[in-house]
Amino acid sequence: MSSTVHHRNRWTLTPDRADLRREPRPPRSIELPALPQDLLLDLERTALLIVDLQNDFCHPDGWLASIGVDISGTRAAVETVATALPVLRAAKVPVVWVNWGNRPDRANLPPNVLHVYDPAGKGNGIGSPASPSSTAVLEAGSWGAAVVDDLEIVPEDLRIDKYRMSGFVDTPLDSVLRNLRVDTLLFAGVNADQCVLATLMDAANIGYDVVMLTDAVATTSPVYCLDATVYNVRQCFGFTAATADLTKALEDDASA
Questions:
Q1: Is the dihedral of CA 42, 47, 48, 51 positive or negative?
Q2: Which of 8, 119, 143, 188 could cross-link to 134 by cystine, CB 3.0-4.6 Å?
Q3: 181 and 174 in contact (C-beta within 8 Å)?
Q4: Mind listing the pLDDT tens digit for each residue in 148-188?
Q5: Residue 165's pLDDT is what?
Q6: Could you tell me the CA-to-CA distances from 169 to 27, 114, 163, 189, 207 in Å, in that order?
Q7: Half-sphere exposure of residue 227, counting CA atoms within 13 Å on the CB side?
Q8: How many CB atoms lie within 10 A of CB 252?
Q9: Cα-based distances in Å from 50 to 38, 146, 159, 165, 229
Q10: Would you give the distance in Å from CA 58 to the centre of its chain?
Q11: Which of 73, 59, 76 is nearest to 243 (CA)?
Q12: pLDDT digit string (tens) for 73-96?
């Protein structure tokens, strides 16, 4: 078990008694400019979810680029997350990486998922057995499924493999977050209008407070898709904020 999880949800045990009271965690509050309203966040109840910043999605030698998708727009999200991670970790905000990581046998992938990015059935879509730079497209443990080189996963971070647009379907993500004792989720990653949005919507639907970090997400879709996504997050599901404002608030809090 990650030390992050263990610290946040544990009993005190002796040979004669189990103390089921969790360790008190006083609130750690920061104020964050956001839309449609500014936010007051409790860092003790907040986690960062980073969705799909992987080689097959974001690297020029990865799968999407190999099938002709312009992945240049993902670069800004990678750079923003790389800058923010040290500040978030210093503030002890849990970092959860939610990435495509298919089973080698693809036994849990239904036809509609296999159809994504392979509408003509040419055999080069999600879960296909070969890609230019990896053993299989988005296969767990492969280069393509790995987080891009610019970003570092540290031992305290948590990793969740996903197999759908949403990180909550057929995964332990909800169990992990409940065990972290968090209820506010900050979202970063790609594609903003696809996997990030699907995960954010499911989070909102099961009761999490959701905040999309607009400068830490990107998409390979047309710009109007991102515009509609940001609108819908604010209108229907939660809030949007800027990572630059978040890191400033964290740094101000640390120096106070």
A1: negative
A2: 143
A3: no
A4: 989 999 999 999 999 999 999 999 999 999 999 999 999 99
A5: 95
A6: 31, 16, 8, 18, 15
A7: 3
A8: 11
A9: 22, 13, 10, 13, 17
A10: 14
A11: 76
A12: 999 999 999 999 999 999 999 999
User: Which pLDDT score is estimated for 3?
Assistant: 60
- The tokens for 63 are 């799968």
Residue with the two structure tokens 């280069």: 143
Q: State pTM to two decimals.
A: 0.94
Q: Report the 10 Å Cβ neighbour count for 8.
A: 18
In this structure, which amino acid lies at residue 174? Answer: D
pLDDT bracket for residue 25 (50, 70, 90): confident
Taking alpha carbons only, the member of 173, 101, 177 closest to residue 139 is 101
* Sequence-distant (≥ 6) Cβ neighbours of residue 119 within 8 angstroms: none
pLDDT score for 66: 87
Short-list 221, 203, 200, 202, CA closest to 212 = 200
Amino acid letter at 98?
V
Pairing of strands 12-13, 18-19: antiparallel
Res. 129 pLDDT band, cuts 50 70 90: confident
CA–CA separation, 193 vs 116, rounded Å?
15
Pairing of strands 34-35, 39-42: unpaired
* Amino acid of residue 5: V
